[in-house]
Amino acid sequence: MIHLPGSTLGILGSGQLGRMLALTAKRLGYRVHVFSPDQHTPAGPVADLEITASYTDFEALKRFAQGVDVVTIEFENIPVETLRALQADVPVYPQPAVLETTQHRLREKQFLSALGIPVVPFHAITSPQDLQAALKTIGCPAVLKTAGFGYDGKGQTRVDSEAQALQAYQGFAGQPCVLERFIELQREISVIAARSDTGQFQAYRPVENRHQNHILDVTLAPAALPAVLEVQAIEYTRTIMDAFNMRGLLCVEFFITANGQLLVNELAPRPHNSGHYSIEAAICDQFEQQLRVVCGLPLGDPTLRQPAAMVNLLGDLWEAGEPDWVSALERSGIYLHLYGKKEARPARKMGHLTALGQTAEQAADWAIQARSRLHTL
């Protein structure tokens, strides 16, 4: 079914991704309703209607479904039952089965392995005995992760000995976990792509992601990759989306090992922090692409107009007071996005800067320089 401008888009989640999607939808002539349990949200002020209720409040979900024409997500850690309940009354994309896999690290890795897509060697952990046996195979150092509900480095820790691993497992309160081999990385990249229900597929070129304290710090678009790796990353992404028979947007995060091997790390079935550069730098940005695919419109052109880089703005920048926005924006080609969050906290994503340049590295230098000027007010 096609949902034309004038229809109402429902968004589950009301964070910054929902805000940017809502702004895009409004530009294209859609009404927007958002649903989340949170108050004072980034998306709420730009939506036509904000419903604040638990994701398991099925009466509120019923009212939400009755007021919209199609539903999508901006945040994947939503109970699958929520999506299934909505699906009884309104189309929901991506499909609930996609979230059931991607919000659980073990199911996700088993799914990828069954497709023959390379991942970091892993073992399922449900007991201290499992952990001890896995350590004998994988060795140390290793990375212990909770099986479900983790992002931005949450729910994972490096372990360098059996004693440390057992202590970390106890700290996860007996949750099912995944133990992964520690990989020496050359770098991390990601691919964002969209797929329609007829199999139409459009992918953005891979970008390079540089992290600080497990949080994305800088994205460079495009990534400087050998052509064979760029093609392989996009083909892996297509294979994954085809296997899901997915309608929606997917970000696939990859490791490139020290010896040049490509490994899939994680899947995110929504717009992604590493795709924010596309607002200024791509013909069709990731938020318009998500809107197009869930509403049944033709997919947009993901071609990069110009090399770009994005830097995150975390709450730490506000520690000494209001950042110096004037100085940061002195150079042309610097674009500021603030998410409307009321409270700045350390490590909280408050906004981002995008820079355009002749090369991605040049754009990254300019974006980092602009961010450094924020401290000077």
* Chain oligomer state: single chain
Characterize the biggest β-sheet: 9 strands, antiparallel
Estimate percent helicity. Answer: 25-40%
Q: What structural category do the secondary elements indicate?
A: alpha+beta
| Overall form | globular
CATH topology of the largest domain: D-amino Acid Aminotransferase, Chain A, domain 1
Report the sheet-strand fraction.
Answer: 25-35%
CATH class of the largest domain: Alpha Beta
Second CATH tier, the architecture of the largest domain: 2-Layer Sandwich
CATH superfamily of the largest domain: ATP-grasp fold, B domain
* Alpha plus pi helix count: 12
SSE string, helix = H, strand = E? EHEEHEHHHEHEEHEEEEEHEEHHEHEEH
Number of strands: 17
Task: Report on the architecture of this protein.
With 377 residues, the protein is of the alpha+beta class. It has three domains: 8-92, 3-Layer(aba) Sandwich (Rossmann fold); 121-181, Dna Ligase, domain 1; 185-376, D-amino Acid Aminotransferase, Chain A, domain 1, CATH 3.30.470. It has helices at 16-27, 58-66, 80-87, 96-102, 105-114, 128-138, 162-171, 227-244, 278-281, 286-295, 325-328, 360-372, and strands at 8-12, 31-36, 49-52, 70-73, 122-125, 142-146, 156-159, 177-181, 185-195, 201-203, 207-212, 215-221, 248-257, 262-268, 308-314, 334-338, 349-356. Helix 2 crosses helix 3 (80-87) and helix 3 packs antiparallel against helix 4 (96-102). The N and C termini lie far apart (52 Å). The mean pLDDT is 95.
